Amino acid sequence: MAVQIQDRDGPEVALGAEPDRSYGRTMTITSSPPATSFSDQAAGLGAEIGAHAERHDRDGTFVVEAVEMLRDAGLLAMAVPAELGGGGATIAEVAAVQRELAHHCGSTALATSMHQHVVAFTAWRYRRGLPGAEATLRRVAEEGIVLVSTGGADQTHPRGEATKVDGGYRVSGRKIFCSQSPVGTAMSTMFAYDDPEQGRRVLNMAVPLTAEGVTVLDDWDVLGMRGTGSRTIVVEDVFVPEDKVLANRPHGVIDGPLQVILSIAFPIITAAYLGVAEAAHAAAVASVGSRRDDVLVQRQVGLMADRLRVAGWALDGAITAVGDDPQPSMELVADVMAPSARSRWPASR
Question: Does domain 1-144+254-349 have CATH number 1.10.3720.10?
Answer without folding.
Answer: no
